Amino acid sequence: LAAAALAPRRPRCATSAPRFTRLRRSPAAAAQRHLFFARTAAARAGRPDREHPVRTVGVIGAGTMGAGIARAFAGAGVDVVLVDRDSAALERARDQVGRDGAESVARLRTGTGLDALAAADLVVEAVVEDHDVKTAVLAEAAGVVRSGVPLATNTSYLDVDALGAAVADRGRVLGMHFLAPAHRTPVLEVVRGAETSAHALDHVLSAARLLGKLPVIVGVCDGFAGNRVFSAYRRQCELLVEEGAGPREVDDALLAVGVAMGPFAVADMSGLDVAWRARRRRDATRDPRERYPQVADRLVENGRLGQKTGGGWYAYADGDRIPLDDPEVARIIADARASAGTTPRRIGPDEIVDRVLTATANEAALVLAEGIAPGPGTSTCCSPVVTASRSGWVDRATGPRPGPRRSWLRHSSGSPTPSDRCSGSATLRCCAPSMRSADERQPRTGADHPDHPGPGGTSAPARERRDRGRL
User: Fold this and answer.
1) How many contiguous H segments (helices) and E segments (strands) does the chain have?
2) What pTM was estimated for this model as a whole?
3) In sequence order, what E strands does 61-138 have?
């Protein structure tokens, strides 16, 4: 832009074309093109067959996510009824909604009993991530709200079909998974259960449009699309810490390649207890051969749940969200390494990025291969859109993407070995850019290849140099 504005006309013309071509072919441009088409496809798949008015939304649970969901709806001009047994939690939630102004606060009503939800057009459950608690809440809410009103659960990992079994009309139940922070993230995972009705799905899709969020319809599995892929991303980060990297080193390496917020800072913001509960549910079925990083569990066992307790992977001063290195965390990490018999080693940013992106892309490809994003046109857009939002990738960033080549997972020894979970359509390529269009993923041969001699026997780069000389 500076050259175009300041340089004389003839030199400007001589330099603008090759600069434009270089930018057009850059990883950042390819990533933005792919995300544009992926988001467009997701938006088409997420249109409700029939629009439903959503004037009043009931939110159950005034914790971090419940307050954020209430803030999102109130900010979108929807009346909100927020219910929680804890009056102090309701006051904190009211303060959070109040950050958007007096109009948002005026749309918020609070209560301690579920009977306050009787007039709601949609109910979103956001209580603690516990199966028994959630099923009890959904069953009680079903007896209070009007017949046919959808009951959405904001569960991060739990089986939506199993939660729906607590309700007589299972067609009313589906997942409405907000990513943190709920009032800011642009993507909403809509989890369609085996018996979810089209009526309930259209209601939630209509609500997503009101919120200005991109709804991505996914199927039922542990963590759905976003958290399943993010779990693989986070697990590789935790393995790196156990092997010798520091939380700050991992965060900084990924920030340098385009992540908007480091994975350990994100974990502290979301709360370490949610992922901890998910790991406890998998204890009975976990493969004993699987490497299991211990540091995150030890942080939770020491009462470090993230920002809400003043400390997680980092420490936080009162009223401040700036992550600070904490000697206590260094001690917990050292103890976990000693228990695992691990001798810490120096891990550079290139290895950190390579391992994290490969593990993330591998899981994203498996999500697609297993049909977690069902229906024509959705499977190819779901994973990149949700992964980019869940992991915090900016549009121009490099990162993980499904592709046609073999996947490699690096183990602690540093030697690459092919993932035995990848075969056929689940194989992938981990490279920059993070995402490209389907046309760009096809290998170009013959006349389509940029180095193929065109008219006059010259390749595309040679023709570009020739044209530049003419300018």
Assistant:
1) 19, 10
2) 0.72
3) 79-83, 108-111, 122-125
